[in-house]
Design goal:
Layout: E1 2-6, H1 16-31, E2 36-40, H2 55-66, E3 71-74, E4 87-91, H3 95-98, H4 107-118, E5 124-127, H5 130-140, E6 147-149, E7 170-174, H6 183-193, E8 200-204, E9 220-224, H7 231-237, E10 240-243, H8 252-259, E11 264-267, H9 270-276, E12 281-283, H10 288-300, H11 302-316, H12 321-341
Parallel strand pairs: 1-2, 1-3, 3-4, 4-5, 5-6, 7-8, 7-10, 8-9, 10-11, 11-12
Length: about 350
């Protein structure tokens, strides 16, 4: 099989969509070495010119034909506009339509993806959790047979590391800093916690332009983007990983933290609930009091913290990128069968 994947998510330095595209492509290449996998994008130094500037209409179709690709996988909401070959469109979540304020630069996705879906351009639609599959079926009025859920996984490089002695305790948030992640709630809760316990709050991740940087204060650390090699130690040494997101398509940082053996405190979002599988403490996303109480509980109850860490490792072991690759490859095969049967 010859498969083209949208390489546009790789033009940003970090984030869940980049991680999905990169890890999936690696696992596909390792699991199916007889197949060919190519990234295609109109971004970068060699941008298309002439008619090929109309990438999704003309340029991409031309490149797919030149390289004899059998199926195209749009890992970021888009597929070629002309249905000349099978395509798989990944709906990562419905955040562009739930709240426009969450995505200041997603106008094209908000307008184009519903049109592609309504016209039946994607051969198969793929979501990254069953929660989003059900939501997409309702929102876009989709037949259940046309949409498939395939879960993600944490990178194999993320494994527990023995914490170093003498590291001052800290709560960790790791992920893109953006409005949807609801950082203000854990800031408020942490300020109340640190009044009785001197613990740091570490915020790590790429900061989007629409995120308001909190003012400097004692104990608050903003690390910015962190190299992948440093993630296992950050996750392994934290008192707990906090993920207060208002809405997720999967919640990959939750699973990454779990695979490193971190105690996880997170919001009661449908997709996160599905992924965490009862192994995390969950609160309503904006309930500051509940976040404060849970943070104090982990600090003051070592048995609770240890139990959460054990549950994290057990839950994370149920996921792998090779499993994701095999399930995704089955979606490609199904897309080819459906396209040929039209």
């Amino acid at each position: 099989m010859r498969v083209a994947l949208d390489g546009t998510p790789l033009t940003v330095s970090s984030g869940g969509t980049r991680r999905y595209t990169l890890e999936l492509s690696r696992a596909l290449a390792e699991t199916f070495p007889e197949d060919v996998f190519r990234f295609m994008t109109d971004q970068g130094p060699e941008r298309p010119r002439g008619l090929d500037r109309y990438w999704w209409l003309i340029g991409l179709s031309r490149q797919l034909r030149r390289e004899r690709m059998e199926v195209f996988h749009g890992t970021n909401f888009e597929v070629p506009i002309l249905p000349l070959r099978p395509s798989v469109l990944t709906l990562l979540d419905l955040s562009p339509w739930k709240n426009p304020a969450w995505h200041h630069a997603a106008q094209r996705v908000r307008q184009r993806s519903p049109l592609l879906i309504r016209l039946g351009i994607p051969t198969v639609i793929l979501t990254i959790s069953e929660a989003i599959r059900k939501e997409a079926m309702d929102h876009f009025r989709l037949d259940g047979a046309s949409i498939v859920a395939v879960p993600l996984a944490a990178s194999d490089s993320l494994q527990p590391i023995l914490p170093r002695a003498g590291v001052p305790p800290y709560f960790l948030y790791l992920g893109t800093l953006e409005p949807r992640k609801n950082i203000e709630t854990i800031l408020q809760a942490w300020r109340q916690v640190k009044a009785v316990h001197p613990i740091r709050l570490v915020l790590a991740g790429r900061q989007r332009a629409d995120f308001v940087t909190p003012p400097a204060e004692q104990g608050l650390e903003l690390l910015g983007e962190v190299p992948d090699a440093e993630l296992p130690r950050l996750y392994s040494e934290c008192t707990a990983c906090l993920y207060p997101s208002l809405y997720e398509g999967f919640g990959l940082p939750v699973l990454e933290a779990m695979q490193c053996g971190a105690a996880v405190l997170t919001s009661r979002d449908a997709a996160i609930t599905e992924v965490s599988g009862g192994a995390a403490l969950q609160m309503e996303a904006q309930d500051v009091q509940s976040w404060k109480e849970s943070m104090l509980a982990v600090l003051q109850n070592p048995d609770l913290a240890n139990r959460l860490r054990e549950q994290s490792i057990a839950r994370a072991s149920e996921f792998s990128w090779h499993k994701t690759a095999r399930l995704t490859h089955e979606v490609y095969e199904e897309a080819i069968r459906r396209f040929d049967a039209r």
